[in-house]
Amino acid sequence: MKLSKEFYNGVIIFIGIALYFLLMEALHLSNVYFLRLFNIVFVYYGVNKTLKSNFAAGKTNFADNAISALLTALFGVFLSISGLVAYIYAKGGDDYIKTLSDTLLFVGSPSVMTYNISLLFEGIVSAVIVTFSLMLFWKKKYPSD
Where are the transmembrane segments (predicted)? Predict the structure, then answer.
């Protein structure tokens, strides 16, 4: 069974983000909020890899490549959020969320699902931003209409 390049690169995004956050947790740096911003590097890498693969295969339709790039980013986001839900429940569920929400901008005490749904929306917005920015970067490689 051959996986689509979008799903494969989405898995690469997930593995990169998961290893990055596990490393931050092991080094006790998970409370340093600005280090969390670097996970965008893995999303850029996976989406750029998809676009590079499409271009190398001769696929130069701008709209098709935009959809391919967005699917890659969304696969990475959904897999990462799913992995985070599993990790949070493995670490204690709502009790573990209380330690996480202290370092983020959550008011009160969010539940596991509230926490992850808000991160899902943030991830979807990030996926769209990454897709648009990389499509602007790659636009010069596509024939104009």
Answer: 7-24, 30-47, 67-90, 115-138
